Amino acid sequence: MIHHVYPSQVQYVGEGGEAVYTNGTIRTAYSYNPEAQLYGQGSGGAYFDSQGGGSQVTTVVSSASGVPPHGMVGITMDVGGSQIISGGSTYLIHGGGMEGGRHHASHSSRSSSAMLEMAIENLQKSEGIATHKSSLLNSHLQWLLDNYETAEGVSLPRSSLYNHYLRHCQEQKLDPVNAASFGKLIRSVFMGLRTRRLGTRGNSKYHYYGIRLKPDSPLNRLQEDSQYMAMRQQPVHQKQRFKPLQKVDGMGDSLSGGSQHSASTPEQSVAAQSQHHQQYIDVSHVLPPFPIPDLGTQPLPERINMNDVKKLQNLYRDHCEATLDVVMNLQFHYIEKLWQTFWFSTAPSSDGTTTIPNSDEDMEGVIPRQKLIALCKYEPVKLWMRSCDHILYQALVEILIPDVLRPVPSTLTQAIRNFAKSLEGWLTTAMSDFPNEIVRTKAAVVSAFAQTLRRYTSLNHLAQAARAVLQNTSQINQMLSDLNRVDFANVQEQASWVCQCDESVVQRLEQDFKVTLQQQSSLDQWAAWLDNVVNQVLKPHEGSPSFPRAARQFLLKWSFYSSMVIRDLTLRSAASFGSFHLIRLLYDEYMFYLVEHRVAQATGETPIAVMGEVSGRAFMYDMSDIGSDEGRGPNEPAVKRERIEINHSLQEI
Question: Could you read off the pLDDT of 269-328 as tens digits, one per residue?
Fold first, then answer.
């Protein structure tokens, strides 16, 4: 439990002192009362955490005052030194390690000579390695310990590790062992390392699961396979269909360079940081099966046969799997290329390159543009493709944000928000030569996907800020004192005309809220309480066609009632108003998240599909405006105004 909170910077210390997160570089999305001292954007802060067993964790952090401009995938972390001192062990997190994940003391201790000797001894016994080769093994094992560390939820391609090892041997003029022996070397150092076969159908590759590059390893500059990792699942027909006018040169040359290559390229920096961020996403997620188009009795369009429909099914599945693989590797900028190649776009992309389709004789296995347009205008195919998009984008949300309450680095959060901001522009540019009715269908789902990413990242930001409040004893006591002064009878009287809620239900929620606050519950306990509230309120409507409407009404009533409580606190000039305002924002957003998923579960749809219905209705309000290119720039999405309408409706809720 945190006893002192200093306002200059919010930091978090886990129960075991195993991870430290800071939102010192998060751009503030909300304004709070500065007197409440919830959190700040200062340059430093400290926490002192007393733990059981007499151990003590002291964290001292300094961070840069500015944040460099953000790239498409991530900002280079500019965090100063940090030190964690624990009663049972000591270990350091150097620059950039703040958001690198959990650093266990056992990993540091494994670099000792005793551990090396033990690993060599085990190899000598199990593999019959001669004693005179011990010095060679020592060099190999020390290199592994210097550059890699164990981390849960992270995977690295097995071929990448072996390529790094071969380069090390070449530079040090050492004789490398073969790939099989190298695998035994790794397992002798990192006990319990697992191997998984990851990837899509017919293109999966073996990965070591539970290991990653250290943040300060020089190998971060040698991400020779950054483009390969992102594009390895790209369908064959897409590889044949485009020829970028510009490509990244010198990637291979930089691998063997000396001092002249010490500065990493943007592509290498992006690859290194995306690798560090992968521990916060779900890299084990697979794309669920797609439905089969229901053609019914509708005749096929002219010059279209069933083979064309089946070919589109296969090609679109491959395209979606490539999209999922690119996002899973956090190579967001490749999405634009994938869309341009699939939709035959010749418009220049954001990086200045142009995708040029090959000649007709080179396009075997590809649906010609006119056939693709005819298929997409065919109503059963249009509905099928929309269902596939719902499945794809829901999978992408679950990959990028598997837990909306879990602390994640601000750089990853901002990268996802920038990705969401670019999606609609990329799509409308890629489909600029397609009829508007096709673009509308695709853009409605992409808009719902982008809006979901923005909402979930905002919710995550609020959760990180609220943790400090919920863990501060003095602030909790002040909130209880202020809450007990609120005239809830008057609040209920004023809200009853609008909400028409059962008075006993409101009183029970009031008492439960006070008890939960008095118990100084953690954020996870509050989340469980909110989930229970939603279950109680919506249980009478389960299985009823009115369930979605009842869920929306509950959201509106919850928001109105909580606003009345905040109003009373404001009029009383409550000292904890800022804390209540932050908590209220978080709980409203989390309620929205819970209700959204309940409605999706009740209707048998994905949450993206639920939000896509709202987007689709908004797109139909003014079809003539979408069909006109007047009044908007070449890079401005045709759906910009509709997106703003959606944002306003969500904010009103």
Answer: 656 676 778 888 988 888 999 999 999 888 999 989 999 999 999 999 999 999 999 999
In sequence order, which ranges of 98-178 are alpha helices (DSSP H)? Answer: 105-109, 113-127, 134-147, 158-172
DSSP 498-529: HH---HHHHHHHHHHHHHHHHTT--HHHHHHH
What burial class does residue 545 get, using C-beta atoms within 10 Å of its C-beta: 0-12 exposed, 13-18 middle, 19+ buried?
exposed
Q: CA of 291: how far to CAs of 11, 84, 254, 385, 387, in Å?
A: 45, 51, 45, 9, 8
DSSP secondary-structure letter at 77? P
Beta bridge partners of 44: 62
Q: Select from 233, 236, 194 the least CA-distant residue to 211.
A: 194
Q: Span 114-127, mean pLDDT? A: 60
CA distance 594 to 578: 24
Task: Report the predicted TM-score, pTM, of the whole model to 2 decimal places.
Answer: 0.58
Asked whether 468 and 10 are in contact (CB, 8 A), the reply is yes
Joined together, the tokens standing for residue 198 give 């990851």
Percent of the chain beyond pLDDT 90? 37
Residue 442 to residues 83, 176, 314, 393, Cα–Cα distance (Å): 49, 51, 18, 12
Beta bridge partners of 462: none
Among all chains, which residue has been given the structure tokens 């998060």?
A: 26
The model's pLDDT over 560-593, given as tens digits with 9 standing for 90+, comes to: 999 999 999 999 999 999 999 999 999 999 999 9
In b/e form, how buried is each residue of 5-22, taking b as 16+ CB within 10 angstroms? beebbbbbbeeebbbbbb
CA 426/CA 419 separation, integer angstroms: 10
Sign (positive or negative) of CA dihedral 70, 227, 224, 216: positive
39 φ, ψ (degrees, to nearest 5): -165, 160
In tens, the pLDDT along 172-223 reads 877 777 777 788 888 877 877 777 766 555 455 677 878 888 888 888 765 4
Q: In the numeric block, which tokens belong to residue 635?
A: 């890079």
Report the run of H or E that residue 533 belongs to, with start and end. helix 523-538
* Alpha helix positions (H), 401-522: 410-430, 436-470, 473-484, 488-499, 503-518
Nearest residue to 465 (alpha-carbon basis) of 517, 523, 526: 523
Give residue 131's identity as a one-letter amino acid code: T
Query: Angle 306-328/369-377 helices, nearest 10 degrees?
Result: 90
**Can you give the pLDDT at residue 293?**
93
CATH of 101-214, one of 3.40.50.300, 1.50.10.20, 3.30.70.60, 1.10.10.10: 1.10.10.10
Per domain, the residue ranges of the chain are 11-96, 101-214, 278-461+621-652, 472-603
Kindly state the tokens that stand for 639: 């759906």
**How do residues 320-362 score in pLDDT, each as one tens digit?**
999 999 999 898 988 998 999 899 876 666 665 555 444 443 3
